[in-house]
Structure formats: C-alpha cells, structure tokens
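@channel sequence for tomorrow's demo:
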Amino acid sequence: MNSRFPARAVVGAALLIVCMGPAFAAPADSVELPSAEAREQMLHLLETQALYRDRVDWNDVRARLAAAGDDRVQQRRVLDEAATRSSRGHGRWISPSQQRERSGRARRLNAGQGAALAESPAVDARIGVLKVGPFVEDVQRSEQERHDARKAYALALQQRIIDLDDGMRCAWVVDAGSNGGGNMWPMLLGLLPLLQGTPDAQGALIGAFRSADGLQWWRQGEGEVRQDGTQGLRSRQAAYRLRAGSAPVAVLIGARTASSGEAVALAFRGQAGSRSFGQPSAGFSTGNRPVTLVDGTTMLLTHNVMADRNGQGDGAKLQPDETTATGPATLAAAQAWLLAQPACKDG
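structure tokens (generated this afternoon):
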C-alpha cells in the first residue's frame, strides 16, 4: 500500500455485501465526497487491488476528476463509475449518510431474522424448510456488539434446524432466493448441521476465495466455520448434528440471490446429495473487504472471486442445477427431487 496512508486504514472484517442501484441522488450542494487525501487513497486501492482494475483507464479517471474542478456532482460520478467498473458493480464508496442508512437497515433487518427464519411454506412434512435471509453488518456498532449479533443470527438459524429435526425430516430445503448479501459467516455457521465438507489434510472444505495469491479455503469444524489464515465464526453452542447424520439438501436461488447469498449456494455445490433449483443468481459472487479510509469513511473493495469446494467459480451468476419457473414451481421441483432420494424413499 502507498506509504502515505496508514496501514490501519485498510483493516476490516471480511464482508460480502452487494450494492445495487444508483450511488446517489441529491442536490449538488449536498453531494458527499471523500476528503482529498481519502480520494487519493481510494483511487490507489482501486487501481492496485480491485478485482477488475484492468477494465479502467486510471489516467482518464484522474484527468476527468481534474477537469471536474469544483463540480461535486461530476466528481462523485467519476469516483462511482471507477468503483463500479473496477468491481463489476459490487464495490463502492459509502458516504457518511449512506452509512447511517445502512446501520439503520442492519438493525431492522437483523432484529427481524427470528421471525423470518420461522416461516415455512406448506410442504411435505418430511422436508425441513429454512428461509435464509441476509445478515447485514452494522459497522457503527462496536466490534463486540457486531460479534454478538453474528452469533445471535447463526444460533437462531441453527435453532430452527434443531426444532425441525424431530425424527420426521428426511431432507432439507435451504431457501436463499431472497438473500441479497451481508456477512456470510453467520449464515454458514447457522447452516453447519446441513453442510458436509469435503475432507482434506486440514479439515473439511466448503468453498474458497480465489485471488492472484491462489485459493483461500473456507472450512467447517466443530461449531466453527473459517477461512484459511483469517477470521471466521465459532460458537460451542453451534455444534449440533442432525439425527440422521446427513441428509439431501435442495438449495433455492434466483435473481435476488447475491453476494453472500451466492456464497451460501456455493458452499453446498459439490456436496453429495445436494442440488440447486431456480433461476440464475444476481452475479455478485465476489468478495468485498470494507476499507476504512483516512477520513473515516468506508470503501467496499472487491478483491477476489468466490469458488466452490472444488475451486470452481468465475465471479458471475450462479447457474442452478435445475432451472425452474419462479415462485412455487421452484419449491415444487425441489420437493419432488428430495422425496425421490433414498433417504426419503427408504424412510
């Protein structure tokens, strides 16, 4: 990193956040911008580390910024275009007001997860259905508060599995069709009882991030999910095992499945007895790292590609194993497949 900027400015949790829609819509005098030093830091990071940095003419970006002069709207437009093109729409700079809005949304969304997880459409009683909604980080909270929120989400999701695993279930549906992103680790920890990682010398593989440095594997352990060499999430309370040991899993995806929602789908891809249904996903199967800039604002830096446990992934839309019409047809196809599996036919 450029020595003009302190190293602490680039540390942050490994989040996967999808950002869609226009960056701003405000009068010129209220358009927010990073400070001059933060802008240079942002451009340096995008030019040297963003996943799709080669798609941007950085000399042209700087020339357009210089030509914009004091025009705040044009400056913001140039910066947002640079972030969008170098991340293929996944990364962005987050202004102070946008961060406040995100924090409010995180609190509302995460507070409602218990109710959302409890909803189950009418399906065969032998199938357990899990609606896996997004977990959004509230970066305005302390690290301890954020950690506690991650664990609470994961334990609520895993408790739903425990409640459903009453001896009647022979198969499971993981519905990620409306999961638009956030932090993937609480989702994966919550789904741990359904994940059957592929064993290797260091544990069990469930996916990976791929960058120029190679593959950084996601692994599962006893009450734990983690990435090689970095953080993950663990809880001694999250070590539940299915009564049957393992079971077939149908994963539902669609156009609103994005970012860490796509990570959930990838974690099951390649697992024996797992199959995905629905429509192609949103196409944000890349990893973001939140970077705190020198002025205290945040940039989401898209810097790697998600892959499955076999190392396969291209950062684009995930294609379901079985394409179905949207709505009830997806669940119906998943149910038909699950009930045809030996675990359900022989039970």
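heads up for whoever presents: DSSP finds ten helices and 13 strands in the chain.
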